[in-house]
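A student in our group prepared the protein record below, which I am reviewing. Thanks in advance; the entry in question is below.
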Amino acid sequence: MPVTGLHHYNLRASRPTLDALRDFYVDIVGLQLGYRPPFASFGYWLYAGEQAVLHLSEAAPQEMRRPNAVNTFDHVAFACTGYALFEARLRELNISYSSDQVPSNGQRQIFFADPAGNGVELNFPENEA
């Protein structure tokens, strides 16, 4: 039973933080707000094309995060196109970022953080370097 791909990842936070994350991932990263089943809890699903890749879920006020999971998440990576446009947009919005190129294949990467401090990596084909 092989894994066939990444389905989604989930970020849990207070509602004001969820709203900031929603706006960031829609306005900056380019995901689209889409259908979310009518769960009892509040949240958003953000899509890349037809796939809901990011779930944003409201954390209860008294909710405690597992201490053994603190500081283990580094970043999420998205496959993208439009390197120059993304880089210009980050500069325009004064979002601090770094970039790199994968030595073996020339793939171009941009790294930055979301409003909650989670790392975001955008990957672009070599021909956009």
In short: The helical segments are 15-29, 83-92. Residues 59 and 126 are 39 Å apart (CA to CA). The beta strands are 9-13, 32-34, 43-48, 51-58, 75-79, 98-101, 108-113, 119-124.
